[in-house]
Write a structure and sequence with these properties.
The protein has about 200 residues and is mostly helical. It has one domain: dinb family like domain (Four Helix Bundle (Hemerythrin (Met), subunit A), Up-down Bundle), CATH 1.20.120. The strands form two sheets. A two-stranded antiparallel sheet has the order 1-2. Helix 1 runs antiparallel to helix 4 and helix 1 runs parallel beside helix 5. The longest helix is centred in the middle third of the chain and has 23 residues. The chain is globular. The two termini are about 20 Å apart. The C terminus is likely disordered.
């Protein structure tokens, strides 16, 4: 059985690694593949989602205050790093994949294994978003990209659930010969660019 917790940890840690390339206000002001969002706004969203999913893992995800985006202050990297520690600790607890996760932003309660799959695909894509904004390469093992693709293929393509205000943009056509990461990005509304990442590591 695939260890989604371990794969999720890799994706989250990669998001932290690529973000380390942003060490000044100018970098945080850069646009991202998330339409209308600066890198600072994207990182605030990512940190809030970590805190929300950690709350869900511990049985209090229905409380929407855990999902609120907060100002990142003078050291956004430190604030994001703290959120990473928080969610990874919550996901490392015994029996987490068998728990029910309340995810109000998605609209329901989900088995832990399914919820962690949602988190995994989110941070595979957001690691790529950050890397693209900063002009660095994202480095994800094939097994992580494969697991993310399996989740992305199950995301509803209903136009009413895609676009402005929704979690994902409308899907775009994947390139010919798309890698698992290429296809994941395309399914979730990103335009893949082979210049932005590297999935060659075994």
């Amino acid at each position: 059985m695939t260890d989604l917790v371990a794969l999720d940890r890799i994706a989250v840690q990669e998001s932290l690694r690529v973000l380390s390339a942003a060490r000044d206000a100018a970098a945080l002001a850069r646009p991202t593949p998330c339409a209308g969002w600066s890198l600072r706004r994207l990182v605030a969203h990512m940190a809030a989602q970590h805190h929300g999913f950690a709350a869900a893992a511990r049985g209090v995800g229905a409380d929407r205050t855990h999902w609120i985006e907060h100002d990142l202050g003078r050291d956004p990297f430190a604030r994001y790093e703290e959120s990473v520690r928080h969610v990874l600790a919550a996901f490392a607890e015994v029996g987490v994949t068998e728990r029910g996760f309340d995810l109000p932003q998605i609209g329901g309660s989900f088995p832990g294994r399914v919820a962690i799959g949602f988190h995994l695909v989110d941070y595979v894509v957001h690691a790529w978003d950050v890397a693209t904004a900063l002009g660095v390469r994202v480095d994800l093992p094939d097994v992580v990209a494969d697991a993310a693709l399996a989740v992305a293929r199950r995301v509803p393509a209903d136009p009413e659930l895609r676009g402005p205000g929704a979690a994902f943009a409308p899907a775009v056509a994947a390139p010919v010969g798309a890698s698992p990461l290429d296809e994941t990005l395309a399914l979730l509304g990103r335009t893949p660019s082979r210049d932005a990442y590297d999935v060659s590591r075994p």
